[in-house]
Write a structure and sequence with these properties.
four-stranded antiparallel sheet; homodimer; 44% helix; Aspartate Aminotransferase, domain 1; 406 residues
Chain lengths: 406, 406
């Protein structure tokens, strides 16, 4: 059979991370590649307790079809939680999704036509590049500095009459860069959103994993709130396997998303929605987040200390206040991070090359390091291995290096 | 904010069944509208047992991210099960989906471009109309008789140079009509598929709920197998709340579906995949299906007997050998089934008007009755109420009726 696939099928691609994960199956590799949470930190006794509770009480309802919007008590609970962060929402502003990835996909479905212009940070989240690419959009990207998205550059872009469909931002401890958008920049962004009627997707899976500094208000709680669509998920703060995320948006947007989700999969897993509702209703979540922060900060510190100790002086890296990722940058022209990865895998350590996070495939002199699943000891050993290769490549390319540093 | 939605968003609609479900919230209504399985038949002790087993053994893996294709032991088990029905498949031919609805949506994504022609039975499954409409396809439909799709008419259509993307069929106890495609027709269809290189989506959620007669081989087990994509789900034979379906297809198609699913939601719920794997691995499924058939056949018989007893002689209806649905037809021009529904709701009974199952909104003289969730007593009472309204409308329109019967 000569299958005739759609244009959208032609725009789909496999995640580079999947390919890397295959590389890192060798048992002696220390992997900083995956962005998955540390399974040793899953709240197993509490999940067991609430799962058994769901099995005992009205389990038939938990095994039956449910409404597309999601289990009402869970939406009410999440709305209240969002309100605690200054995001005005009631249950009707919330759609439960099959993880945040489905939120991104459904948003693409209701907003993106082929050829639409979408603005992102640079680098940006790989999963957004994947889901949006399928809708054949054009990406315009804005570089970040230590305070996040360079809002001045955004305004320059907005003056160009591109009529972008929306802006996609990950404001806290961004995946992949670890960078946080500063309060001042958020305020500027809020004003720009209002001035240019620019919708914003605020994708924020990590904000509660903050290890230093104070919580910064969400864009979705600022003046531009009515232009904002907020995405959140339990994947990094409870468990990813339950595939549970949610979208907070104006009712007009939720109505469209519900129609799209109905066509996509009818509704999210009823059983898992009730398990997670019970977990939250029992009051376990805040204590667990505090515990996660206590544990992840040790891993982050171990990684930053090892980097400081072992990396050659030509390297630059970010110092995330939370989340799971450090972004490291080589001087331009030394070696591609793809080639670097091959050498590192031989040396027993892995990461994700920066190009995975650039819609145009650029970003070749950077890479993402995740400190989530390695132990502190493995982090020290892994960074030492990585640094060994970095010293080699920097010494191999002294002339280009000097030129690049000038 | 003036939200600028996509063209695809404009092609989405809400399910009429959702609207009807709102109508039927009144406690004294006997509803034959929903197509959901009987929750009193869920295998709750066994699900409880295997869920606790998953919680006890390697639960961290069941709570972690998984691969897009789905949990390998589950795919191996399903492949073996499919082989038992003559469908050649190994684990690499299977993608685990978030219910069959996601299978349909992902197939739309990888196959359908706006303007493509899709062939369906008439009537056809509402969820397929919904998901495909979003991809802005054109439907060409072929009427059914007691043996299912009229294959002669299909060949006439195939001769017209329409270059259809594919044929979508529900061969067993079709939702909504209850009709089964005969063996002879399947053989003819297999030949046509080969002759015209016509891909077939064989959507078969009900085939194991057979109450009379012998299993008929699947199209996917016939000569045309390599042109076939087979969809199945646990929703009607175990539980719908776990949202678990699967696609069986050639590897080339699976590869594209995996890419599409990765962009759509990364993967299906890890926990539920393991629960359902354990349920099947414990050997519970076949016995449970036997039990379901014993129980559902009583409901089917109760409905057919009540219809026989109470319906006016002008009515026609199907006699399904399995599944959950009976399809009833009024003489043309008596009353629209939408208007009939309003009167029936006043009389305390509900169904789904036929137009929901016609891509062009036709089908106004027919309606779908589900016998799955009402008790035998409720079925008797509900059909009596419905028959009361049918006698009225048939008497109100004697002249048109007579004309239509000639």
């Amino acid at each position: 059979m000569n299958w005739r696939f759609s244009r959208q099928a032609g725009a789909l691609s496999s995640s580079i991370i999947r390919e890397i994960l295959k590389l890192t199956q060798k048992s002696d590799i220390i992997s900083f590649a995956g962005g998955v949470p540390e399974p040793r930190l899953f709240p197993i006794p509490e999940i067991t307790e609430v799962t058994i509770k769901v099995l005992k009480n009205n389990v038939a309802q938990a095994l039956q079809y449910g409404i597309t919007e999601g289990y009402l008590p869970l939406r009410e609970l999440l709305a209240e939680r969002m309100q605690g962060y200054g995001i005005k929402a009631d249950a009707d502003n919330i759609l439960i999704t099959q993880g945040s990835q489905q939120g991104l996909d459904l948003l693409g479905r209701i907003f993106f036509d082929p050829g639409d212009t979408i603005i992102t940070e640079l680098p940006t989240y790989l999963g957004f590049i994947q889901s949006s690419s399928a809708y054949q959009v054009k990406f315009r990207s804005i570089h970040m500095d230590d305070e996040g998205l360079q809002v001045d550059h955004l305004e320059e872009l907005l003056c160009q009459n591109l009529s972008p469909k929306l802006l996609y931002v990950l404001p806290n401890f961004q995946n992949p860069s670890g960078v946080t958008l500063s309060l001042e920049r958020r305020r500027q962004l809020s004003q720009l959103s209002l001035k240019y009627s620019l919708p914003i997707i605020e994708d924020d899976p990590y904000f509660e994993l903050r290890y230093d500094g104070e919580h910064i208000p969400h864009l979705s709680s600022m003046e531009c709130a009515e232009n904002c669509i907020f995405l959140n998920t339990i994947s990094k703060i409870i468990t990813p396997g339950h595939r549970l995320g949610w979208v907070v948006a104006p009712k007009e947007v939720i109505r469209r998303l519900v129609q799209a989700k109905q066509a996509a999969d009818l509704h999210t897993n009823s059983f898992s929605q009730r398990v997670i509702y019970e977990y939250c209703a029992q009051g376990y979540l805040d204590g667990h987040i505090k515990y996660l922060c206590q544990e992840y900060v040790k891993k982050r510190d171990a990684m930053l200390e090892a980097i400081e100790k072992y990396f050659p002086p030509q390297m630059r890296w970010t110092k995330p206040q939370g989340g799971l990722f450090v972004w490291a940058t080589l001087p331009e022209g030394v070696v591609s991070s793809q080639r670097l990865l091959e050498r590192c895998v031989d040396a027993g350590v892995a990461f994700v090359p920066g190009s995975a996070f650039y819609p145009d495939g650029d970003g070749n002199n950077a890479f993402r390091l995740s400190f989530s699943t390695a132990t502190e000891e493995e982090i020290e050993v892994g960074i030492k291995r990585l640094a060994g290769v970095l010293w080699e490549v920097c010494q191999e390319a002294p002339s280009r290096l000097t030129a690049a540093q000038q």
